[in-house]
Amino acid sequence: MARAFLLGYAEEERRRNVLRIERRRLRDASDPLQLPEREFIGHFRLTKLGFQQVLVELSSHLPLVRRNTGVRNELKILAALNFYANGSYQRNVGASFLLNMSQPTFSKCLHEVTGALNTCEILRKYIKFPMTQHEREIIMKDFMEKFGFPGVIGCIDGTHVALIRPKEHEEAYFNRKNYHSLNVLLICDAKLTILHVDASFGGASHDSYVWNQCVIKAFLEGLERNGERLWLLGDSGYAQRPWMMTPIIGAAPGSPEEYYTDLHCRDGDLDNDQQHQLCIQGRTDAPLDESRLILINRIWNARNIL
């Protein structure tokens, strides 16, 4: 009896090893870079050149492939890019290498690539608020040339990313629109480049509360005390401050206040455009625990870098 069990177990292990090796062979035989450029962008939201740059940046931050069934870095990154682009694990024909990647393997790839994109070196390089006066002057010049609005160093807003009901502290994620979410704070410049992102607050937190906890707020307060005149553009959910310009509600038609508000709202649409480009369906097939929420925060950072 024991002998039969051991033989059966050994045979099952042999089959699993054969399947892993076959999957590796099929993955290695696939080359997503052979896709036409437009189709490649459709699946991964990056050009081939952009992907090659990401590959160079991340290779030193990814674990070494040690086994003969391991996944090459190129395919790890493409699997993660496909997820970031679509918001789910989609085994589509264009990304055919995913057809030969098991769910556990894909999950491991996603964690590794997301972790690599969340290293301090990468985050500080690609999501960076303008800390020097020269950097701020460049951004202000862009806003002035594009919108005729002086002194602006960014547009700020919050966007809600939907979640399945979390297992813990559910009330912190239930927003005023009656669904569970993260309230993600975004600041972008005139070119829609992300300058700052914070995905650590639940949907129950108001935009103004998230902003009051933000390190950028204290930084701008310090600049204002030192006599530097600049500001962010935010909607009426934020308090008017020397470093925060908000619309004037109910401005009289034809008044300077109405002109200012129209100009403000046109600039403010930049952040809405960025939110539209970045919003990912954050829902999952299982209730969220703390580790899943942390992963979603890290995925948001990763997508903003890209």
Describe the structure.
Keywords: Hydrolase, Metal-binding, Nuclease, Nucleus. Its cofactor is a divalent metal cation. With 306 residues, the protein is α/β, with parallel strands linked by helices. It has 2 domains: 2-117, no CATH class; 129-292, no CATH class. It is built from 11 helices and 5 strands; from the N terminus they run αααααααβββααββαα. The protein has helices spanning 2-29, 37-44, 48-59, 73-86, 103-117, 120-126, 133-147, 207-212, 215-225, 256-278, 290-305, and strands spanning 152-162, 181-188, 194-202, 231-233, 244-245. Strands 3-2-1-4-5 form a 5-stranded mixed sheet. β2 (181-188) and β3 form a beta hairpin. α3 (48-59) packs across α4 (73-86), α4 packs across α5 and α5 (103-117) crosses α11. The chain is globular, with a radius of gyration of 23 Å. The termini are far apart.
Give the helix/strand layout:
Layout: H1 2-29, H2 37-44, H3 48-59, H4 73-86, H5 103-117, H6 120-126, H7 133-147, E1 152-162, E2 181-188, E3 194-202, H8 207-212, H9 215-225, E4 231-233, E5 244-245, H10 256-278, H11 290-305
Parallel strand pairs: 1-4, 4-5
Antiparallel strand pairs: 1-2, 2-3
